[in-house]
Specification:
With 278 residues, this protein is mainly β. It is 13% helix and 38% strand. A five-stranded antiparallel beta sheet has the order 1-2-3-7-6, with no helix packed on it.
Length: 278
């Protein structure tokens, strides 16, 4: 290759690297110097530092989520490990069972693609371990949803990075999801600051089906707020797949419903905005 060709190739490589860094940075956020702006935004949402939504911090009430590594390799199976340390700094080994598990581990890319609901194993030394594979590059958010014995329920979050180029996915508003031959419809409106009734209906071949018990419930619903991925985990509060969800603010939310039928667990995904308080 002549000198001009080498320089052209080098310039193209720099463009790709810069583009990838920009995409990754916009997915992670916030940028340095934006803390004051986010504080104003929290005040508008009616949130306070004393009672933030779940999953926005890696530490709360003296408990800290500490992964052994924050780097993932796209497409490669990884044994992901982490610890929850307590107020004294030692790994926590005693957790209450909540919905048949001592800890629920949620992994999702910052654009809310690639959602996973996993259940790690706990070692005697306080190390949690779970097989984890992410299909694509990008910035991911991992949530640990648990209740330490003698403590309050907590959801801690941490960012993970899977290096490489990626294109963020847009999610248009949708209340109907098709997954593996099933159609799932979500009815009801999210109204910020109050308990909102949501009802999911699962059909197959045009006929409604009754979901099987999964983790002690007929289904599990996780809501993530657009932008910062504030976390809410909701369980059925009535017959079938009826949920009462209270979102912290107005905005767009991604909803993930885990349901079991035919002895297989599937996930239906929805995107919806909030309605006005009445």
């Amino acid at each position: 290759m002549n000198t001009a060709g080498k320089l052209s190739a080098y310039a193209a490589a720099l463009v790709l690297i810069a583009g990838g860094a920009w995409a990754l940075g916009t997915a992670v956020g916030p940028f340095p110097g934006q803390a004051e702006a986010h504080g104003d935004e929290d005040a508008m949402h009616g949130e306070t530092m004393e009672h933030p939504p779940g999953g926005l911090a890696s530490s709360e009430d003296g408990y800290t989520l500490t992964p052994a590594s924050t780097t993932l390799t796209p497409g490669a199976a990884t044994r992901f490990t982490f610890r929850i340390t307590g107020p004294g700094g030692a790994p926590v080994t005693a957790f209450d069972v909540e919905h048949e598990k001592r800890l629920h581990f949620i992994v999702v890319r910052r654009d809310t693609a690639g959602y996973r609901h996993l259940h790690p194993d706990l070692g005697a030394d306080g190390t949690w371990s779970v097989p984890l594979t992410v299909a694509d590059a990008g910035s991911y958010r991992a949530f640990a949803d648990f209740k330490p014995t003698g403590g309050n329920p907590l959801t801690l979050g941490v960012d993970l990075q899977a290096p490489g180029m990626f294109r963020p996915v847009e999610h248009p508003e949708s209340r109907v999801a098709d997954v593996d031959g099933y159609r799932v419809r979500l009815d009801g409106d999210l109204v910020p600051g109050r308990s909102s009734r949501l009802v999911a209906t699962v059909t197959k071949d045009g006929r409604q089906v009754t979901t099987q018990p999964y983790l002690g419930a007929t289904g599990h619903l996780v809501a993530l707020r657009g932008g910062d991925l504030a976390y809410l985990h909701v369980h059925p509060a009535g017959p079938g797949l009826t949920f009462l969800a209270e979102v912290p603010s107005a905005g767009s939310y991604r909803l993930f419903l885990d349901f079991r039928h035919g002895d297989v667990v599937r996930t239906a995904e929805f995107t919806t905005g909030t309605g006005e308080p009445r």
